[in-house]
Amino acid sequence: MKIHISGGYIIKTFIGTCLIIFLSLSVCPADEDTNENVCKEWNDTPWSKDVCLVDEDTDKNNCYLLWQDHQRVCLGYKPEPKATPGSKIVDTGNYIIAKGVCGKGYCWDFVNAVFECAGYEEKNLKNIFSPDNGCNCDPCNNKEKETTRYLQEKDRDLIQPGYWIMFCNKEYHNNDHSAIFVCWRDKNKKNWEAGMLDFRGGNKRWAAGKKSTHDLKGVVYCIKRPLVKDNDYNR
Fold it and tell me: 125 has which bridge partners?
């Protein structure tokens, strides 16, 4: 018995096979976490590289600044105008860290400088999570600790890239700390390890911003973000 296969049939079969292969390569597997809040890759900046060793009196390359001097800290950087607020803040923070700007002040001075350089003054920020007595309290090492309301598991999705996070720093004596959230380190979200833009300063110490990891489980007491419509933040 002879089987006759036309040239048109072979061409159609070949095209169909190629299409199936293309679709299989272009579609994400069902179990892959495509959430933008999850780190694709994250490398902490070594602690040894956050200390400025240049003579502070020379102000070489505008390295030594007060974080409050926002015009100089920004180094003329302008985030993409059409970017979302979260992207503007993260991109601005990454730029300042990459340039090695060294500041003097506290952690919140660095965070505020990044927000200002991204175009968001502190007066234009809103608290989306805070204890009853507001975000200016220090609940980590005083009598308010036991009565402070901390972010719970069910509310973890409140945290988005570019948010100002205030928390008790488990990695450093449980002191109150501020940093900028970028992403979750664990794609399965089984823990609260967060990739953050950070500053380990102290008012008498010159240091640069850095990328770090913090465990945020049970220690977040305040979250701030720019005062924009909810749908516009990460649209």
Answer: 226
Contact at 8 Å (CB) between 84 and 234?
yes
What does DSSP say about strands 164-169 and 175-184: parallel, antiparallel, or unpaired?
Answer: antiparallel
Nearest by Cα to 41 from 170, 219, 184? 184
Distance CA 139, CA 230 (A): 28
Question: What pLDDT score was predicted for residue 148?
Answer: 64
Helix boundaries (H) for the chain: 7-26, 70-73, 85-98, 107-117, 230-233
If you average pLDDT over every residue of the chain, what do you get? Answer: 75
β partners of residue 226: 125
In the predicted structure, residue 224 carries a pLDDT above the cut 90: yes
CA 144 to chain centre: 28
pLDDT of residue 130: 83
77-87 residue pLDDT tens: 888 988 999 99
The angle that helices 107-117 and 85-98 make with each other, rounded to 10 degrees, is 120
Cβ neighbours of residue 117 closer than 8 Å, sequence gap 6 or more: 70, 73, 74, 77, 92, 96
Residue ranges per structural domain of the chain: 37-233
Taking only the tens place, the pLDDT of each residue in 63-116 is: 556 676 766 778 888 889 889 999 999 999 999 888 888 887 888 889 999 999
DSSP bridge partners of 211 = 197
